[in-house]
Each structure stands twice: as C-alpha cells, then as structure tokens.
Amino acid sequence: MKRVLSVILSLLLLFSLALFVSAEDGTTIQITGANSPAYVVDNADLISDSDEAALLLMAQEISQRQHCDVVILTEADIDGKSSMEYADDYFDYNGYGYGPERSGILFLISMADRDWWISTRGSAIQAFTDDGIDYLFSKCKSDISNGSYAAGFRSYLKTADTMLSAYNGTLSDQELAEFQNDFNSFTGNVPRQKPGFLKTTVLALLAGFLLAFLPSSGLRAQLKSVRAKYDAANYRRPDSMHLDRKRDIYLYANTTSHVIETQRSGGGGSSTHISSSGATHGGGGGKF
C-alpha cells in the first residue's frame, strides 16, 4: 500500500512541476529535479504513509521556492558503500538537482550501521558549509536518535529552508539576526561587541595620559640638581677638551628582522570531493 501511495504521489508531483522555467535573461533552464522520483524516499519504512505524504509536499514547496532540491532518503542497507558514496551516487544518478548546476541537498539515513550523511551539490555547497551541515543535523539529531524520524525530518526541512533563505538574502533583518546568533552560539564564533565612540575616546585619552605621565615622572625623580643650569660651560672643566678638527666616520649598521605572521581565515568553508559520476559534492555525516 505504501509503495502504491509513493508512486501516485510521485506521478502527481511530476505532473504539477514545470520542466522548464524562464530565467531573467530570457534563456530556458531545465529543472532536473523534476525528473526525480520524489523528494522523500523512505525505503527503510521509518515513517507512516501520512507523514511521508506531508513531508513530500513540504520538501516540494521548499525546493521550488528556493530553487534547490531538498531531499530525504532512508535505506535499510547501502550495499557495502560508504554513506558519502551512496548519498552522492543516489543524488547524481536519480536526476536530482535544480538548474544547470544541479543544486541540491540530500539527507541520507542508513539503518544498517546507523549512519547519516548530508550531500550537497551546486549552490548548496556554499549555502551549507561544513559548520552549517553540523548545525543542520544538530536541529534534528535528538529526534533522529530517539526514533522520532518524522519530527526529525520536519526539523531538517525547516532548518534547511531557513539556511537557504539566509544564503539567498530573503530573510528579514530580525530573522537573519536570530539565525546568526543561534548559528554563532552553536559554532562558538560569537563576535565581540565593538565599544562605543565615547568609550573609545575616553580610553584613548586615558591611555595617552598614562603613557606620557609615568615616564616623565620617573625622569623627574632622577634629577639631583639643586637648580637648573642654563649654560653648558657650567658643566665643563676648564681646558679639559681641545677640538682641533672634526669629521663624520661611519662605523657600522645594526639591522634586526622578525617574521610577520599572517592570519589565516578560520572555519566557515565547505570541503568538497568528486563523486563517482565526476561531479563536485560537499557534505558531512556521522553516526546517530
């Protein structure tokens, strides 16, 4: 019954999706994801028919709106392949991917060894960085680990939608700030607050005063003269020096050097690899 329902839903999706869309420059772009079986493929039978149908419609709407295929795949066994290889190959050889870059993200759950892998391609590689993939899974990890797969997949779809909107610049200022704060809190990359102009000015004046006052106070304390002398003759012994001639003689030069360290950019990038089809993929995964 479940397989029949999946076939019917797939046919409805294929009928409802347009195979071609008009780009801004007037050219025609094929939506390769429209040829895929479905956005939710539950081969491991982890969710009910009604949940699968609801998730399928949710994934379809997000994929069309974001111009990026968002896919869920579950398998009881992955034929001896690694989760990375299986996810990449399933994406590539089943027609997923939106537009000429075949942009998309596929979330694989393999029950054989309780592995998960998120495979990205096209623009999704930049939208879901290595840290972003870890963040994305963290939002559904608890439900997936506890066997609440439908709830976990809903969290995955909602978070993926938010991250794609942040990447595409379609979040409101408030939504973007909330997402960035949550993401930075997860990664530990909390930006430091810049001090205000008045505070910066006061601190700079105070530091300058201390730097000028302390050294001069130390020098003044070392003075032993009873009163100031205004003529150098007071400090010279009579007939103690006769200057017959003078010339400048270059003796030596003293040169010091040190290495200036250059700061490398931190995390936030996407590591990539080549799949068996020759396509470039990003991704990440682990156990659940």
DSSP helix fraction:
40-55%
The assigned structural class equals alpha/beta
Number of strands: 8
CATH class: Alpha Beta
Question: With helices defined by DSSP (H or I, 4 residues minimum), what is the helix count?
Answer: 9
The quaternary state of the protein chains shown equals single chain
Amino- and carboxy-terminal Cα gap:
29 Å
Global geometry = elongated
Number of separate structural domains: 1
What name does CATH use for the topology?
A: Diaminopimelate Epimerase, Chain A, domain 1
CATH architecture: Roll
Q: Over all CA atoms, what is the radius of gyration?
A: 34 Å
- Spatial order of strands in the largest sheet: 3-4-5-6-8-7
Return the average pLDDT rounded to an integer.
Answer: 79
Share in β-strands:
5-15%
Q: Strand-and-helix sequence, N→C?
A: HEEEHEHEEHHHHHHEE
Largest sheet composition: 6 strands, mixed
Unreliable runs, pLDDT <50, ≥5 residues?
A: 11-36, 257-267
Give an overview in words.
Helix 1 (2-16) packs parallel to helix 2. A hairpin with a 5-residue loop joins strand 1 and strand 2. The chain has 288 residues and is α/β, with parallel strands linked by helices. The chain has one domain (2-190, 270-287): Diaminopimelate Epimerase, Chain A, domain 1, CATH 3.10.310. The two termini are 29 Å apart. The protein has 9 helices and 8 strands. The protein has helices at residues 2-16, 49-66, 83-93, 124-127, 130-138, 141-145, 149-168, 173-187, 197-222, and strands spanning 20-22, 28-30, 40-42, 69-75, 104-110, 115-121, 272-274, 280-287. A 6-stranded mixed beta sheet has the order 3-4-5-6-8-7, sandwiched between helices. The chain has a two-stranded antiparallel sheet with strand order 1-2. It is elongated and about 110 Å long.
